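Hello,

Our lab assistant flagged a job as stuck in the queue for most of the afternoon. It eventually completed. Since we weren't sure the result was trustworthy after the delay, we are filing this so someone can double-check. Below is the sequence as submitted and the structure that was eventually returned. Let us know if re-running is recommended.
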Amino acid sequence: MKPARSALEALIAGLRGHLVVTTDWQALIALANHTLLTPALFASLTQSGQSDRLPEDVHEYLRFIYDCNRERNLRLRSQLNEAVVALNQCGIVPVLLKGAVPLFLSSGGRVPDRIMNDLDLAVETGSVEAARACLTNLGYTEVASSRDGMGRPQDVGLLELRPFHRIDREPPKLASRRGVRARIPTPQSRALHWIMHDLVKEADYWRGRTDFRHLYDLARLAKQHELDWAALRASLPDRHTRNAFDTQLLALSHFFGASVPAQCVRRPLVRFQHWRRVFPLYHPFLGVPLRLVGNSLWGMWRVLHGDGVALRNPLGMGRRAASILLDADLGSKV
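-- returned structure --
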């Protein structure tokens, strides 16, 4: 999806609590739905006292999506607690990742306004099989379409269970809620995980894409906690990951006004990469060549570093290459 500039600017303003009166509410709502930010948009406007200025039909729609997502997140929290209790009874204290963290830490009728696709849990490498067996006893089965996913028919989301890999020097902290124990990565670790997951693992740095839901998560995390961006940057292993890190910091500052170290975002390469991500959002037609070049470079890298997968399964690789070139795997990104 390539959003029009006015819709994107109205969405970002709304997430920051400012209502931008637009003549194209449909485009704004379509973008909010695509980026999975509709409940967050309504919550932000409500908290800032701006939601009453929305057109009645827009207000009703946003409120409906917000209420549906709240009900879904209450069910996800119950599902998460049940799983963590079962793991605790098996002697396992899982590490909660991404959206599972604020869900676990919430209480009563208050749950995050974030739309969550699944619940991400990690356990020590030697405990993965025991954890899977424990969840199997709860009725979970492996989902063929998801590498690490386990699901049940009665649930609204999957559980993603994976080995825990520490990405920085700070170990997760033990948290207990009503006797249920889980380990929570520090805010620094969570911020680094989001950046590396999107920019490096999912190649958004190469492909010029942006996951605004994760960028908004990062902005809220930075607002709630005093993050040491310089220390996080220093922990990165090479120039490529540092460039990707700096590019995301510049996007964070540009769209959400976050305070980031000037030395991280002033370099010409970082500013060029940021421009390469933003230009296609504001100029969809003119931005097509930029996206095509980025997708082509990433596709070639995958072929060269794919451990011979192109030779073993050329048809599969061809389909994957076409998907990359045509941006068919955007998901909720733009």
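-- support follow-up --
The delay was a queue issue, not a problem with the job. The result is valid. The mean pLDDT is 90. Strands lie at 95-97, 118-123, 141-142, 149-151, 158-163, 173-177, 180-184.
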